[in-house]
Amino acid sequence: MEISTTYAKKGGKALWFLIVLLVFAACSSRKTTVKSNTSAAKMADAMANLKSRQLYRFITDWTGVRYQLGGLDKKGIDCSGFALLLEKDIYGIQLPRRSRDQAETIKEKDLSKLREGDLIFFSFGGREVDHVGIYLNNNFFVHASTSRGVVVDDLNLAVYQKAMVKAGSFKEN
């Protein structure tokens, strides 16, 4: 009889411990942080970290507008037109209309020294500048893509690394 009482006490303690453990597990408020290294998450982070709220609004207002060579409105816009409007509206800078002419207006900087609003120039068709984007932060930039319209992209992508020819800020005369 004494053996079964001792066994019952031990079994009861184990059962009680299991019940308490389950209650704590069910009631605990765990704060789970999901970290994502996806391109979309990094792009969202770059947008969230913009210093200028006006720039944020400008980009979100234009995101998705289709590409149109020579376009300057929400019906369609090209890369140099987008850069021209953004720099004028956000920074009060008057740029030339064409990307190759815009490239002549900057003081070159190393990529690691770029700041929000600096211009980045590319050459996809040879030696001459034929595309422009605006640097945001963390190696992300906004531009009018010929295939996707106005988008935020990652400068680390090989296609941009191969085509980038110069970057910098507008030089004051």
TrEMBL record:
<keyword id="KW-0645">Protease</keyword>
<dbReference type="GO" id="GO:0006508">
    <property type="term" value="P:proteolysis"/>
</dbReference>
<dbReference type="InterPro" id="IPR038765">
    <property type="entry name" value="Papain-like_cys_pep_sf"/>
</dbReference>
<comment type="similarity">
    <text>Belongs to the peptidase C40 family.</text>
</comment>
<dbReference type="InterPro" id="IPR000064">
    <property type="entry name" value="NLP_P60_dom"/>
</dbReference>
<dbReference type="InterPro" id="IPR052062">
    <property type="entry name" value="Murein_DD/LD_carboxypeptidase"/>
</dbReference>
<feature type="domain" description="NlpC/P60">
    <location>
        <begin position="49"/>
        <end position="171"/>
    </location>
</feature>
<dbReference type="GO" id="GO:0008234">
    <property type="term" value="F:cysteine-type peptidase activity"/>
</dbReference>
<dbReference type="Pfam" id="PF00877">
    <property type="entry name" value="NLPC_P60"/>
</dbReference>
<protein>
    <submittedName>
        <fullName>Spr peptidase</fullName>
    </submittedName>
</protein>
<keyword id="KW-0788">Thiol protease</keyword>
<keyword id="KW-0378">Hydrolase</keyword>
<keyword id="KW-0732">Signal</keyword>
